[in-house]
Amino acid sequence: MKAQKNPSVTRAPNKSAPGSKSAYFKPAAMLNPRGLRSRERLKEAAREVLNEKGYHSLRVQDITERAAAANGLFYRYFHDLREIVAEICSDFFDQLIEASGTLDVGDEPYNWIYQNHRDVVDRFAQNPGVLAVLFGLAGDYEEFDVIWKRNAHKWNLQVAGFLQASAGFERSHAERMGFVLGAMIEGVIYQALIRHTDDLFEFGSEPKDIAETSAVMWYRAIFLTNPPINLLGVTGKHLAGETTAKKDT
Amino acid sequence: MKAQKNPSVTRAPNKSAPGSKSAYFKPAAMLNPRGLRSRERLKEAAREVLNEKGYHSLRVQDITERAAAANGLFYRYFHDLREIVAEICSDFFDQLIEASGTLDVGDEPYNWIYQNHRDVVDRFAQNPGVLAVLFGLAGDYEEFDVIWKRNAHKWNLQVAGFLQASAGFERSHAERMGFVLGAMIEGVIYQALIRHTDDLFEFGSEPKDIAETSAVMWYRAIFLTNPPINLLGVTGKHLAGETTAKKDT
Predict the structure, then answer these.
(1) What is the ipTM of this complex?
(2) A222 contacts on B by Cβ (under 8 Å)
(3) What CATH homologous superfamily does A19-78 map to?
(4) How many contacts does A have with B, using Cβ atoms within 8 A?
(5) Residues 6+ apart with CB under 8 A from B166
C-alpha cells in the first residue's frame, strides 16, 4: 500500500506520534468501509477510556486494548491523541446539535427549553472526560476551546431560531439573547458537572433537576412569566416561587 | 529567633518548599508589624506576577525580585507557591464580597444588580491570573475550587438577601434563586473573560457591557419585567428588545 500524508495537518507531530509511524498513516477519506469501521471502533474505545480516566491518563495502548486492536493500528488512523480527542469532541457536538435541532415537543415553549437542556445535561453528564477537555481542565486549552466555540455558536443560533418562533423576537434580538442564554447554561453545567456545587443541588442533583433549574430561569428571562406550573417538578416549582406563600408575583 | 512549624499545614512540602527551609518559616500570627508589611508586600508582588505570567510560570524568584526582597525571604512567610496563591485568591474574594455587601445604590434594584455585576467583572478582568487559577486552568484544581465555592456561596447569600428585600421572595426561594443566578453569572464571566467568546461581545466587550448583559438577564428572570429602560446603555436596550420594533413585550 502507498504511504499517505494528511495535507490538512500542519501541526508538528508530538511524542504520541513518532515520525517513523507517519508513513503508515491513512486519512479517513482514503479508507474503505472496513477501514472506516475500524477507525470508528478506535474512536468509540477512546471516548470510553477518556471518560473513565481523563485526558491526562489517556494512553494509545489503553485505546487499542479496549478496541481489541493491534497497538500500532492507532497510528494508521490518527496522528496522535489530540487528533482523536478533538474528533471525539466534534462528534459529540454534532450529535448534540442534531438532537437539539430535531426536538419534537409540541407547541409549549417550556417543553422545548426543558427537553433541550435535559438532552445537553444528559450528554455532558455521560461524558465527563469530554466535558473536562472542553473546559480546559486537561490542558491544550486553546485547541479544544475552538471546538467548543464553533459548536456553542451553532447551538445558540438554534436557540435564537426558537426565540424568533416562540417569543416573536426580531432576529438580532433573538441572536443576542441566544448568546447570553448559552453563556448562562454554560455556567450551570460548569457548577453542576465540574464543580459539583452543593448549593445548586438542594432540590436534586439528577440531570432532570439541573435541566429544570436552568430551564425555569431561561423561561422567566425570555417570556417574563413563569412556565406553566403543572409542567414543573419540585425543583422548578420552588424556583418559580410556587411552593411557598406567594409574596413574589 | 525560634524555629516555627505551622501546625495547620499537613500537606507534604512540594519542590517549591524544600524541607531545609521549613525551620526558617514563621506563621503570620507570629509576625510583628514590620514582618506583616513585608509579608503583604510579597503577596502584592505575587499577585502582580500571577496576573502577568500565569500560575504555571510563577517562580519564587520573580516574586522576591518584584518585591525587592531577598530570595530566601519568601520561605520565611510562605511554605510554597500554592500557599501564597491560595491566600491571594482568598483575599481577592474577601475584598469582592465586602464591596458587594456595602453597595450603596439607592432604591432602584437594577442599580444594585448592575453595580454588583460591574464590580465583579472589573475585579476579575483586572486579575486574569487569579481567574484562571479559580477556574482550574492552572491545575491543582481541587484546592482552588474549594476557595471559589466557599466564597461564591457567601456572595450568593448576599444576592439572596437582596432578593428578599427587593423582590419580596421568601428566604428559601431567595436562596434557591441566588444560587442559580450565581451559576449563570459564572457562565457569563467564563465566556467573557476566559473564552473571550465573540458572540457575547457584539455590543461591546468592556466590563460595563458584560455587566449590563448579565444584569438585564438577571433582572428579567427575577422581576419578570425589563429594567427601567432609561438606566440601560446600548447593550442592555438591545437585550431588552427596546431598539427594534417591539413584537416581544
Answers:
(1) 0.85
(2) 220
(3) Homeodomain-like (1.10.10.60)
(4) 161
(5) B109, B112
Least confident range of A95-109, B2-16, B72-86, B214-228: B2-16
* pLDDT tens string B123-164: 999 999 999 999 887 666 788 989 999 999 999 999 999 999
Contacts of A152 (CB under 8 A, 6+ apart): A182, A186, B197, B199
Parts of chain B belonging to CATH 1.10.10.60? 19-78
CB atoms near residue A174 (< 10 Å): 24
Chain B residues near residue A192 by CB distance under 8 angstroms: 183
**DSSP string for A104-133:** --TT-HHHHHHHHHHHHHHHHHT-HHHHHH
- For residue B13, how far is the Cα from the chain centroid? 27
**Residue-wise DSSP of chain A:** ------TT--SPP-TTS-GGGGGG---GGG--HHHHHHHHHHHHHHHHHHHHH-GGG--HHHHHHHTT--GGGHHHH-SSHHHHHHHHHHHHHHHHHHHHHT---TT-HHHHHHHHHHHHHHHHHT-HHHHHHHTTTTS-HHHHHHHHHHHHHHHHHHHHHHHHHHH---HHHHHHHHHHHHHHHHHHHIIIIII--GGGGTT--SHHHHHHHHHHHHHHHHHSSPPPGGG--HHHHHHTT-SS-----
Partner residue facing A217 (CB), from B141, B180, B197: B180
Tell me how far apart the alpha carbons of residues B170 and B184 are, in angstroms, rounded to a whole number: 21
Cβ burial of B21 (10 Å; 0-12, 13-18, 19+) is middle
Each residue's pLDDT tens digit, B163-205: 999 999 999 999 999 999 999 999 999 999 988 888 888 778 8
Q: Do B149 and B182 touch, CB atoms closer than 8 A?
A: no
Q: Does domain B82-239 have CATH number 3.40.710.10?
A: no
Test B187 with A192 for CB contact under 8 angstroms.
no
The number of angstroms, rounded, from the C-alpha of B149 to the middle of its chain's C-alpha atoms is 11
Question: Which of B179, B185, B194 is the closest to A200 by Cβ?
Answer: B179
Axis-axis angle for helices A109-125, A207-223 (nearest 10): 140
Contacts of A3 (CB under 8 A, 6+ apart): A23, A24
Which residues on chain B are in Cβ contact (under 8 Å) with A157? none
A177–B239 CB contact, under 8 Å = yes
- The beta strands (E) that lie in chain B are given as none
- Min CA distance, A137 vs chain B (Å)? 6
